Amino acid sequence: MNRGSLKPVIFEHAVLSIGVVYSIFPFFWMIITSLRSSGDAFNSDSLLWPTKWDVVYNYTQALLTTPLPRFLANGVFVCGVILLLQIATALPCAYAIAKLSFRGRTFLTATVICCLAIPFQAVALPLFVGLAQLDLLNSYFALISPFAVSVFAILMLAQYLRGYPDEIIEAARLDGLSEKGILWRLILPASKPAIAAFAIFSVAAHWNDLYWPLIVVTEPDLAPPTLGVLFFRSEESGDQTGPLMAAATIVTLPLVVFFLAAQRRFVQGITMTGVK
Amino acid sequence: MGATLSICDLTKAFGQTHVLSQISLDVQAGSFVSLLGPSGCGKSTLLRVIAGFEAQDQGTVSVNGHSIDHLPPRARNLAMVFQSYALYPHMTVGENISLPLEMERLSPFQRLPLLGRYAPGQRMLMADITAEVRKVASVAEIDHLLDRRPAQLSGGQRQRVALARAMVRAPGLFLMDEPLSNLDAKLRVTMRSELVAMNKRLDATVLYVTHDQTEAMTMSDRIALMMGGQILQYDTPEAIYSAPAHVDVARFIGHPSINCIPALNDAGVVVAEAERCNIRTVEREQKLTLGIRPEAFALRPAPTAKAVLGIPVSLDRVELLGPEVLLWCTAKRTGRVLVAQARAADHRSMVASGLLTGSLWLEAYGSGLHLFDPSGKAIPIANALSAETKAPLVAVS
Q: What's the complex ipTM?
């Protein structure tokens, strides 16, 4: 880099830094508030750095006085089952759209794309009414079933599979593999990067989802972490910000760990490199 | 054992484009047959119809006398080697080769991951399969690569793995779609002879698609030359070269390609380059094409009596190929570019004795001449008088 371009670089970094501070500050505040005593949080003298630490109390409160571990287990279970179902439904559909020729393929693809435009809020009420009629509210089924098929997953995997060589699939047909066998033994292993990338989207979306659990779950035993924190907040009064932020930190942590673990695959999947 | 393949009146169109029209072909058991033609002539489509990847519009494909049109690819008892090799990328070489056998011999339960190995009889079957994979791998000289993945192999090694995977089921018919086109020139020559050796050793029928005439000429028992979705000639390599049935066959085969000269039919005597030639035909057609192979031409400092055709030319360019030279000439009367091939030693001695300085004639004698009618079909030369008869050169017009 030559000297002439130093000024624009400083400017660019300044702009970017504002963005970084803007997105990191809430987390920063959440974490330091979880480390200090509740009274300290709104004290203007110690807004950015704690004066009175209260780590042990905050975290033991968060973990012991509320069923937070139970909320976390609920979240892991619900997100895990949703992800598995989404992959199980999206992979065959994506394979069919990308690699098989059958009557109505164009129509099916167009329909799938149209479905992407339907906001979840539009179907939430009919789903709620349906689940209520079947007496299935307050169940894991209610939390999971609306998300078992992901249109986004179908389109993303189909796009990825279009790059898979046709000749390999033909060789497999000659070697005696059925379409099911091709899906299981060739397409699934080849789709790993795309599946990992999708998993991040899916898990992040459903781990952080508050809207749907709030509608279908009123029982604390079934609550996923986001809803659990909400219960926690309403049970305890507003001066318990320390334990509340400790709970929020504990809820956020698994997602960060998950993202770091899947990050490399994520980048691979997003850039959609070929299978060669 | 090799299978016989017989194709009858096969027609295939993609929308309005006719890719294959009325293809008929009989391949004998154990023979090596090439489908040769320029790209887009329909040869790969024909192979894909035989394999069952595409359905034909009309016609039948039979193996050993039984129609296979209703069968899915896996039930057709044939193996294919693809241009890109199409190895399964996340399986090892050993798994790639054993997959066809596992699919053939194990039940769905025995194939289950993890659980499958506890199925009754699975261990014995797998031991047999592993032994056969080792045997085929040692024949293909890849037994040291069984634990590698395709990405870790060179092009030549991948080619051998693809061959081994095709051979392991011992099918009656091998389909090969330009399997050598991704290899470097040296390896291609080695693999050519290995493929022929495999064909003889396994006594398997091979249908080999290529656009490379050298491959087709050197490897095949017979060549089916395809153009525009039709088979123009199906014959031995010798006959394809020395007795082309169509002007397009004559043009496609041979390097450099054949000299084609428009000719007129003057009451049974062929007139080319404004010369009455000592070539006669019984055809009535007026406009003919006279084809002369480069090696049938000889460059002479003066016209000789035994030539059936002599064209005054000027020599433009000499290309040395090694043992041979190509002599690029221009016909003096029409400006047509003609090429002759001569032995390099003969050419050197002519240059040394100063014979190539004055006016020159390109002469043809009895052999290496072909006549084609306006539709391109070969027509017999009635009495091209051979060199021995020493017929007088017909007078210059």
A: 0.82
